[in-house]
């Protein structure tokens, strides 16, 4: 089996690059990424991670973290093939999140180079695969902000601020519900309610179980199911709940219901 490399970039997410490598025995010299915070995961085989004075055999279930300018390498164990994912996030984008979280002006390094955390590992792979498959790039920045906020909160040395007051969260929820058919960016939501993005994202998720855009997407699909039950066509329903692209509607409907709109209609 020959090695396969995919590099994903998109102008909609200019701060991000994702690499997927399958069945590779290629080795790296020790190196660093000056302008990127890197997160990686092996999903098949094993790799030997070296970072500073730490060397560790890494397999599925472990995430690795490399700060900007941190010397590291990840090479196959005993020459065997391994498959892995890497996410490269621009340092300035990470620093902006950290500034909202901690009030710091400089990038705050993550204080570990690996984490044995199956839930975080699964979350990372889910985000990478969703983005590389172009499931919903509008949702991607929400998910990336949430994911990185969790890492910075857990593995950077700083104190977090309290969640947003429940009254404000109720106003945010009502606004999303009233405008569920409109794509509302995290920046626009934060500006409207005079909150910083990190606190809004974390507080809303703590209160309602989902980040704002995912909550809004769930409302769209619930409304779509209602319209289909009442006899609306798939194309009419997609437009009414805010999807101009029917293929996007089909992907999101299936993602949230494990069925296509057509299958849902046949079950009536």
TrEMBL record:
Question: What is the designated name of this protein?
Answer: Transcriptional regulator, AraC family
Instruction: Print the keywords alphabetically.
Output: Activator, DNA-binding, Transcription, Transcription regulation
Species assigned in the record: Denitrovibrio acetiphilus (strain DSM 12809 / NBRC 114555 / N2460)
- Look up keyword tRNA processing and say if it applies: no
Q: Which residues form the HTH araC/xylS-type domain?
A: 166-267
- Superkingdom of origin: Bacteria
| PROSITE patterns referenced in this protein's UniProt entry, alphabetically | HTH_ARAC_FAMILY_1, HTH_ARAC_FAMILY_2
Q: Known Pfam families for this protein?
A: AraC_binding (PF02311), HTH_18 (PF12833)
A GO MF annotation of the entry reads: sequence-specific DNA binding
Read off the Gene3D superfamilies from this record.
Homeodomain-like, Jelly Rolls
